[in-house]
Amino acid sequence: MKRHMLTLLASLVIAPGIAAAADSATADFTPAQQAAIGKIASDYLVAHPEILVQVSQKLQAQQQDQQAKDTLTAVISNAQALVNDKDTPTYGPKDAKVAFVEFFDYQCMYCSRMAPLVEQTIKANPKVRFVFKEWPIFGDRWPASISAAETAISIWQKKGAQAYLDFHNALYATGHDEGKLTDADISGAVEAVHASLPTAEQRKATHVALANNDELARTLGFGGTPGFVVMPVSGATADNTTVLPGAVSAEELQAAISKAQGAN
Hints:
- With 264 residues, this protein is α+β, with helices and mostly antiparallel strands.
- It is built from 12 helices and 5 strands.
- Strands 1-3-2-4-5 form a 5-stranded mixed beta sheet, sandwiched between helices.
């Protein structure tokens, strides 16, 4: 066990090539020599515990980098489900060249903070198709998350894109998140777009879309909301697609659109 300590440190802090050399070299040492090397490494770590912090940080960075690569690969593989799902609300031209996809929950605090920036981005990009993946991940804790998502999809099905977007923005405009969203908030937003609350049967009809969104989000590796994907509607590659897992700035949203348009 001790003989691998220097190899582990080398692999995480120095370089894989040095790690391989260290492993090969220590394999030729006697048990006594290996024990001595282990003692030296152990004493060094005790004297310099900051090395362990550096190792942990490097390992975490490597894991995050790999996760980002895996998510990007999954996004490219699931492009059609992201940009051309007939059960997903969209806003913008059907012949758009770029799609802006958001996974969100109406009770998500960070989604709420992002809502004005997304609204601003929609107004600034009339040629982009905005795709709204309702993902009520807080539904087990706060039932209004599910009710709001069901109602939103139902409004889109019955009254179209503009009514859906107005309802969506009206819910976020309440400022009620983290369990504060109420049935009255939902009813008020419904009335504001001159719609009606969905029946039990209409709510049930949205569940396939919600389940598909949940499965897709987890396939992509999203661990929470919001999650953004910006990509060309066709011909998406790792070079023209951006994944933004979490709250970001308006500038980052716009940069992702420009990248998908081929401006960068």
